[in-house]
């Protein structure tokens, strides 16, 4: 019998974001780039999101949004952790349009899930590279809040 899948909450990444840059319709959807300009990490890991990186999005014709963010954070004890976070955001078109214009939307009404991967050379945080993580996220006008859960 295979082990049962369970998850446990480990930390939250709050990534502050800059103005959206749109490359336009590329043939597979609208390409958007959202700069990551800072933020914080709270929970089991504590630190600051570094002021570089971006979320590279493709908005499909059905409004399903493919996301791929690349950035890093520095822990309060000096470890640098590189993050690649891939996922999707989807919901009713009228709510996605509100989000696109910076209007508030109840996060429970939008499916926003990701699979973050971490890399670091710091021994104390190697466990981040030895597990699979899933996340539930919420988009706000000036930030994205990502609750990271470890798959046990």
TrEMBL record:
Transmembrane segments: none annotated. It comes from Bradyrhizobium vignae. Pfam families: DUF3237. PANTHER family: UPF0311 PROTEIN BLR7842 (PTHR37315). This is UPF0311 protein JWS04_12090. Belongs to the UPF0311 family.
């Amino acid at each position: 019998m295979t082990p049962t899948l369970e998850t446990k909450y480990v930390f939250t990444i709050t990534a502050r974001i800059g103005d959206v840059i749109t490359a336009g319709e590329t043939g597979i959807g609208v390409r958007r780039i959202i700069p990551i300009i800072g933020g914080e990490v709270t929970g089991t890991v504590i630190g600051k999101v570094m002021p570089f990186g971006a979320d590279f999005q493709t908005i499909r014709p059905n409004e399903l949004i493919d996301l791929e963010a690349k950035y890093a954070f520095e822990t309060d004890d000096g470890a640098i952790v590189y993050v690649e976070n891939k996922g999707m955001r989807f919901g009713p078109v009228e709510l996605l349009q509100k989000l696109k214009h910076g209007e508030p939307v109840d996060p429970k009404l939008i499916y926003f899930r990701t699979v973050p991967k971490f890399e670091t050379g710091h021994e104390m945080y190697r466990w981040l590279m030895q597990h699979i993580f899933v996340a539930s996220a919420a988009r706000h006008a000036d930030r994205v809040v990502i609750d990271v859960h470890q798959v046990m």
